[in-house]
C-alpha cells in the first residue's frame, strides 16, 4: 500500500493572521483541500485541522494546518506523524520564504531552518529530513522590520501574484506526490 503523505501549511491561527504573508503555507493547504473536495476538521490528538483525501489509484494525503502559533508547529506535526505513521520523507512543509522574491517557489529536502521559526520547531521535534515547499514572499521594503512585514497582508498590487503563488505551491505539492521529489524539483526549478 502507498505511503501516506502529510502536507503541512505553516501559519498562525485566527482571523487576524488568515491572509498574511506568514500564512501563505496555510493558503496553499486550503487550495489543495479545495481541489480534492476535502473538508478540514479538528484532530482529536493534535492541535491541528486535518483533511484526508486520496489520490486516484494512489496514496492517502493528509493536509494539516497546525492551530498552534508558527513557532510551536513541531508538536502538532510530530503527533500527526506518529498518528498516521508517516516518515519524514513523506512530510511536505509549506512555508513563507523572505529570501525568495514574491511568487517564486523552491523545493528543498533537509538542511537547516534558515531563520524560519516554524521550521526551527519542526526540526527540533523531528529532525531536518522533511520536504519543503518554500513560497517566496519577498523582502520588506526599506527599513521595515521583517517580523512586522510577514504579519501583514499582501498589498493590493501584489494580490494577483500572491494568488498565483498559491496555485504554484499547490501544483508543486501535487508534483511531489505524483512524480517524486527529484522530478518535481527539476520541473519546478526549470527556467520558464
TrEMBL record:
Sorted alphabetically, which InterPro entries does this protein's record hold?
Pept_tRNA_hydro, Pept_tRNA_hydro_CS, Pept_tRNA_hydro_sf
Q: What is its EC number?
A: 3.1.1.29
An example Gene Ontology cellular component term from the record? cytoplasm
Q: How does it assemble?
A: Monomer.
Q: What is this protein called?
A: Peptidyl-tRNA hydrolase
The yes or no answer to whether the keyword Cell inner membrane is present is no
GO: which molecular function terms?
peptidyl-tRNA hydrolase activity; tRNA binding
One biological process term from GO is:
protein quality control for misfolded or incompletely synthesized proteins
Query: Which keywords has UniProt assigned to this entry?
Result: Cytoplasm, Hydrolase, RNA-binding, tRNA-binding
User: Superkingdom of this entry's organism?
Assistant: Bacteria
Annotated tRNA binding lies at 17, 69, 71, 117
Q: Where is this site: Stabilizes the basic form of H active site to accept a proton?
A: 96
Q: Where is this site: Discriminates between blocked and unblocked aminoacyl-tRNA?
A: 12
What family is reported? Belongs to the PTH family.
Tell me the Gene3D superfamilies matching this sequence. Peptidyl-tRNA hydrolase (3.40.50.1470)
Catalytic residue list: 22 (proton acceptor)
Amino acid at each position: 500500500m502507498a505511503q501516506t503523505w502529510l502536507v503541512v501549511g505553516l501559519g498562525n491561527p485566527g482571523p487576524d493572521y488568515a491572509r498574511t504573508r506568514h500564512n501563505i503555507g496555510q493558503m496553499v493547504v486550503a487550495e489543495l483541500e479545495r481541489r480534492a473536495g476535502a473538508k478540514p476538521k479538528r484532530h482529536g490528538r493534535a492541535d491541528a485541522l486535518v483533511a484526508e483525501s486520496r489520490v486516484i489509484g494512489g496514496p492517502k494525503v493528509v493536509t494539516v494546518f497546525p492551530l498552534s502559533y508558527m513557532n510551536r508547529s513541531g508538536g502538532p506535526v510530530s503527533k500527526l506523524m506518529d498518528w498516521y505513521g508517516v516518515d519524514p520523507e513523506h512530510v511536505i512543509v509549506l512555508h513563507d520564504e523572505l529570501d525568495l522574491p514574491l511568487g517564486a517557489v523552491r523545493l528543498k529536502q533537509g538542511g537547516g531552518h534558515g531563520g524560519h521559526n516554524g521550521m526551527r520547531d519542526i526540526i527540533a521535534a523531528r529532525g531536518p529530513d522533511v520536504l519543503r515547499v518554500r513560497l517566496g514572499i519577498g523582502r520588506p521594503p526599506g527599513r521595515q522590520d521583517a517580523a512586522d512585514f510577514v504579519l501583514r497582508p499582501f498589498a493590493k498590487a501584489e494580490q494577483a501574484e500572491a494568488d498565483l503563488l498559491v496555485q504554484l505551491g499547490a501544483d508543486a505539492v501535487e508534483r511531489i506526490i505524483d512524480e517524486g521529489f527529484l522530478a518535481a524539483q527539476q520541473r519546478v526549478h526549470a527556467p520558464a
